[in-house]
């Protein structure tokens, strides 16, 4: 090269021209354009940069920092755990293949998949289907969500979603508790309501009896407050007897809607607690304002943990087993071997993975754009998405978009410098 520099220049010229057209010119022009307004005519100085770090766009800056800190570290941690745990199992290769498979899916496809996973409706969203299943396993669901008394009924709202009778229960007759507001399809298979036997009558099981039923006759007709033919019983409703603010007795209605309270209930007011009417648990709002960013980060980790695992597993294969065995012979347990031998030896590989993922995360755009619904897209916004929205997505302000591009470049440069220095140190070894 020292004797024929023109030959080297001839070979480098095509690459230099390509880099100049695709890299150097866009960087220089973006820097120039960032000092002009939306029309591109008026010079605005640093106003575009001030706008990036103010107002709603500040959320994009904060979210980008969260992404840079959380996503690469968590994905690398999962990759490290997967690589170490699968090293000794026979089916480790198959497991690694399954974990790595999401890498074959595009960001667009992954966004569509997780958009369905995070659906609010448990019948459609896998995440809420699992969450609701676990919740309902440990928490008893309400008997008749949405049921309520008629405005003219003896039952009245008593706070917290409960309903209490205005008058005290008497043991000489029955205290019937009619309700409405239950969709007919929900009681299609229920038994017909039966009048309760008076407490003093033959066959009565308690001092206070009554019936809880759906006071609605299909097709119209019937008398409000009375049990008409074919009206449906509301089974499983909890009825409490309350005296001086304390529950002295309680019972649940049977299949025919009847209940029986012991003698302690005489003279007490009857209350239907809110647990009878609470709406069914519908899961977590994964794509709501507070959880949309963690939910999208989780989808990113699902995709890129396999990438981290493969690189770390390759580095793990290069570690001398003699060092690990020597540590075990010196009395170190597996956790100590992992923490004081394996991780330090994998430090160069781990740094490569983290730096690579940090650069990748700074460019994240499609996952956020696809998964986040329009109502919470502003809460999940990141710089790359804001660049698109400001320049081409309706903002029509390429001055601000260029400023965001320059900010992203400035965020990437330190990571690149760290990576270059690390590579130079490796080459010196």
UniProtKB/TrEMBL annotation:
InterPro entries, alphabetized: Ig-like_fold (IPR013783), MetI-like (IPR000515), MetI-like_sf (IPR035906), UgpAE/MalFG_permease (IPR050809)
Major localization listed first in the record, in broad terms: membrane
Residue intervals of the ABC transmembrane type-1 domain: 61-419
Stretches for region Disordered: 141-184
Biased composition (Polar residues): 164-175
Pfam families referenced in this protein's UniProt entry, alphabetically: BPD_transp_1
Membrane-topology annotation of the record: Multi-pass membrane protein
UniProt keyword annotation of Zinc present: no
Keywords: Cell membrane, Membrane, Transmembrane, Transmembrane helix, Transport
Keyword Membrane found: yes
Regions that span the bilayer: 65-85, 97-118, 300-320, 341-362, 399-420
Subcellular location: Cell membrane
SUPFAM superfamilies, per database record: Cna protein B-type domain, MetI-like
Similarity section: Belongs to the binding-protein-dependent transport system permease family.
Record protein name field: Sugar ABC transporter permease
Species this chain originates from: Streptomyces gossypii
Native organism taxonomy: Bacteria, Bacillati, Actinomycetota, Actinomycetes, Kitasatosporales
């Amino acid at each position: 090269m020292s004797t024929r520099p023109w030959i080297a220049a001839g070979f480098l010229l095509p690459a230099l021209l390509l880099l100049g057209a695709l890299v150097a010119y866009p960087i220089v022009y973006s820097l120039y354009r960032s000092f002009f307004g939306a029309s591109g005519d008026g010079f605005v100085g640093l106003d575009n940069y001030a706008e990036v770090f103010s107002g709603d766009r500040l959320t994009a800056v904060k979210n980008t920092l969260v992404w840079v800190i959380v996503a690469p570290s968590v994905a690398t941690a999962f990759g490290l755990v997967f690589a170490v745990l699968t090293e000794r199992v026979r089916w480790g290769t198959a497991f690694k293949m399954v974990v790595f498979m999401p890498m074959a899916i595009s960001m667009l496809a992954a966004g569509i998949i997780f958009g369905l996973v995070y659906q609010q409706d448990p019948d459609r969203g896998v995440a809420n289907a699992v969450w609701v299943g676990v919740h309902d396993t440990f928490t008893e669901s309400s008997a008749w969500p949405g049921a309520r008394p008629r405005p003219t009924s003896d039952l009245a709202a008593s706070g917290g979603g409960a309903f209490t009778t205005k008058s005290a229960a008497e043991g000489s007759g029955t205290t019937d508790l009619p309700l409405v507001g239950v969709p007919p399809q929900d009681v299609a298979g229920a038994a017909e309501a039966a009048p309760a036997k008076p407490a003093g009558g033959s066959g009565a099981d308690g001092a206070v009896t009554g019936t809880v039923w759906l006071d609605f006759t299909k097709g119209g007709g019937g008398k409000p407050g009375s049990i008409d033919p074919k009206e449906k019983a509301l089974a499983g409703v909890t009825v409490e007897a309350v005296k001086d603010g304390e529950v002295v007795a309680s019972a649940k209605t049977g299949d025919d809607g009847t209940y029986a309270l012991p003698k302690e209930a005489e003279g007490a007011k009857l209350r239907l607690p809110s647990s009878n009417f609470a709406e069914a648990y519908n899961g977590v709002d994964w794509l709501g304002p507070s959880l949309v960013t963690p939910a999208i980060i989780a989808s990113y980790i699902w995709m890129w943990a396999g990438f981290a695992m493969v690189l770390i597993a390759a580095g793990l294969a290069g570690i001398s087993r003699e060092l690990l065995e020597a540590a075990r012979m010196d009395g170190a347990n597996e956790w100590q071997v992992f923490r004081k031998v394996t991780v330090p030896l994998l430090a160069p590989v781990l740094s490569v993975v983290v730096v690579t993922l940090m650069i990748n995360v700074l460019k994240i755009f499609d996952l956020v754009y696809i998964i986040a619904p329009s109502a919470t897209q502003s809460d999940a916004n990141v710089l790359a998405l804001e660049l698109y929205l400001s320049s081409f997505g309706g903002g029509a302000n390429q001055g601000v978009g260029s400023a965001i591009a320059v900010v992203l470049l400035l965020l990437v440069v330190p990571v690149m410098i760290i990576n270059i220095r690390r590579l130079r140190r490796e080459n010196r070894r």
